[in-house]
Amino acid sequence: MSTETTRPAAIEIQGLHKSFGELEVLRGIDFRIGYGEVVCVIGPSGSGKSTLLRCANLLEQPTAGKVLVGGVDITDPEVDIDRVRRRVGMVFQSFNLFPHLSVLENLTIAQRRVLGRGKEEAAEAARENLAKVGLTDKEDSYPGRLSGGQQQRVAIARALSMGPELMLFDEPTSALDPELVGDVLAVMRTLADEGMTMMVVTHEMGFAREVADRVVFMDDGNVVEEGGPDEVLVRPGHQRTRAFLARVTEPQRPRSER
């Protein structure tokens, strides 16, 4: 039997429920992402997309169900969650950069404090990832001197500098002006092309169509439909999916016809 068939999923979610008081946000989600897979999660506001993603890294504690990362049950009270989180990079809507630190310092501080890397080793990793996001010339700049798109690319480089096995993106372009979105999505396309495992909560339907191996449509705390980009975004089978896409996209042709 091949190691690929026996390797655990990058993320496996089983029977996940999440409530905030009396509000049930996730209603029994089963969800799986294999290594090297790019999965885009779409749906209307309030559907539970971001809560699902935050539960995948235990930034939100599930009410019920299990979350396994690389086969490790992170909902087990005995698990070393900080150790597991080192394998998972996360990029938020807001950039969460330290304003009093330079770009290079923002990229090296966690490497040194969490991974125990020396100054030069951390700086080498930081510069390698700044080059990947096209910001080599900004290492001495401070976040306040950067555009929103540049700050988000710095945030991506910071996450990559920790050497994650998978990346979680929570609507990474939603806070950006439209003209700045393209550069961030280009970085994410490159990561996908390089084989990075990615779970992306997004409202960018074009990006999902081009990059995702699988698209998941959520509504009212449930996974309504999932499948390949053409299957979900071009020929959705569920009326709720069709109604959502009619509001947010123009009619699309399958990738094979473009």
Please describe what this structure looks like.
This protein has helices at 3-6, 49-56, 81-85, 103-114, 119-132, 148-160, 178-193, 205-211, 229-234, 239-248, and strands at 11-20, 23-33, 38-42, 64-69, 72-73, 88-91, 166-170, 197-201, 214-219, 222-227. The strands form two sheets. Strands 6-7-8-3-9-10 form a six-stranded mixed beta sheet, with helices on both faces. It has a four-stranded antiparallel beta sheet with strand order 2-1-4-5, covered by helices on one side. By secondary structure, the protein is α/β, with parallel strands linked by helices.
Summarize the structure.
The chain is built from ten helices and ten strands.
What secondary-structure arrangement, pairings included, does this model have?
Layout: H1 3-6, E1 11-20, E2 23-33, E3 38-42, H2 49-56, E4 64-69, E5 72-73, H3 81-85, E6 88-91, H4 103-114, H5 119-132, H6 148-160, E7 166-170, H7 178-193, E8 197-201, H8 205-211, E9 214-219, E10 222-227, H9 229-234, H10 239-248
Parallel strand pairs: 3-8, 3-9, 6-7, 7-8
Antiparallel strand pairs: 1-2, 1-4, 4-5, 9-10
